[in-house]
Fold Malate synthase.
Amino acid sequence: MSIDVTGPMNERYDEILTERALGLIETLHRTYDGRRKELLERREQRVAEIAAGASLGFLPETKDVRDDPEWRVAPAAPGLVDRRVEITGPTDRKMTINALNSGAKVWLADQEDANTPTWENVVGGQLNLLDAISRRIDFSTDAKSYALKPDEELATIVVRPRGWHLPEKHIQVDGEPVSGSLVDFALYFAACAELQLARGQGPYFYLPKMESHLEARLWNDVFVTAQDTIRIPRGTIRATVLIETYPAAFEMEEILYELRDHSAGLNAGRWDYMFSVIKTHRTRGKDFQLPDRNSVTMTVPFMRAYTELLVRTCHKRGAHAIGGMAAFIPSKDPAVNEQAFAKVEADKTREAGDGFDGSWVAHPGMVETCRTVFDSVLGDKPNQVDKLREDVAVTADQLLDVASTPGEVTEAGLRNNVSVAVQYLAAWLEGTGAVGIFNLMEDAATAEISRSQIWQWRRNEVVLDTGETVTTDLVERIADEEIDKLGNPGRYDAARSLFLEVALADEYIDFLTLPAYERFN
Ligand SMILES: CC(=O)SCCNC(=O)CCNC(=O)[C@H](O)C(C)(C)COP(=O)(O)OP(=O)(O)OC[C@H]1O[C@@H](n2cnc3c(N)ncnc32)[C@H](O)[C@@H]1OP(=O)(O)O
Ligand SMILES: O=CC(=O)O
Ligand SMILES: [Mg+2]
């Protein structure tokens, strides 16, 4: 074996970095890394084509898949039939226990948007998952002790590995870093697949940030190899794909088809979707420019088209459609708190009415609100996959209609983006991938929107409501002013420089997490 672990072997890491797990990573790397890299290159080619005037659209070469009325995804697996409330969050020890105990049906154990992939978070998170599934997890502070509730009250665990673009530099094959996706997948699969099966569930995953059905095919092949390697039946793994990139919205049906034996449906990942809308068309001028982040709601035409199409596509194929994250979190300020709950309730009510089978919350305090809304729509049924939404007919033009989004670009919006991005990056660099900022949950996806808007507004020389044009000088000045307001001299130095890099570099940086990750050893 020529696989090397270059990160430290801290206490109990040998329980995760086993010969079996490393062997699986090496096999997956040798078999699939070439394809992964080719698919990443295809992303670049598509962006170049779009920059030259091409348009996204439904693919002519996969028309047969879309037109074939026969195929369906596999029936829902145990623990994934009723998904009316899903809580998401990082895999630190306390939050693992809190999420599993939260009353949600599913816990998205996040190694992606809500996680900084430090070596300690990557391997420590896997240990927490192993301990949780082995029912030997506990945690205590001076004030409080944490333990799991009885089995029947716990959420089903669904792990979200990193996206295809991220490397894991602490594990190398022939001196080359392996894919973060394959590491997160294989470490969990090797440690926990059989334990989950013994508990009557299975190794379940959420798959982020895919841009095409060919990327879904790659995941499917990875699943087949992994299942064959440890001799468990094909189809044991289940995966819900986040439709959270603009190109993927045009390939929803094909993505379900590629993964049909392993599919557990699709999720409308709204925050990365907005990021991807900006990113994909970043050089196409004002037709694909969004107004202030807070004015892009789920009811603007292009967002509505995307979620409607997602429900229709899923239910046509017997798959669950899962709603997205309303970023409002509970607040200690009663007025803000009341607003947050009202907004989450409205968001979940729209989703449940549209036919989604369940949705996401960011905080245990929101579980009941989401459950109550879905209870009232689902009644005794575990889901509404039978609601076919044949009334929906979404065209490519509707998905692409960004230009009719109402709203302005304001100085307040620019300041908000700068402040949120800097605060988030500071937390990320300190090892925390999700934080509450200005009463909203912020994570890698929401921070990507903030910095990409600034990049696009500067490139488009947008004139703000104040009459000022967005320039490098203006963004730098606002960054200094906003950092001053935060009043913690020195804390934001590294975040400021990272922010200016990802918001203002002449050549757009694909993901802020790439240069951010380089700042770690
Ligand atoms: C775009 C997307 O991808 S969305 C999905 C990815 N993003 C996420 O998953 C974010 C999930 N949410 C979070 O991480 C958190 O809610 C935050 C960071 C936004 C706020 O967390 P906090 O500042 O700790 O909130 P707060 O103080 O109100 O928490 C109260 C309690 O709830 C717990 N809690 C809050 N959110 C969660 C969660 N998502 N999972 C488990 N426990 C949670 C806290 O740990 C705390 O526990 P304690 O009382 O036992 O100490
Ligand atoms: O991962 C979810 C999103 O909205 O992004
Ligand atoms: Mg996302």
User: Anything to note?
Assistant: The mean pLDDT is 98. The first helix runs from residue 19 to 51. The domain at 3-397 is CATH 3.20.20.360 (TIM Barrel). The longest strand covers residues 167-173.
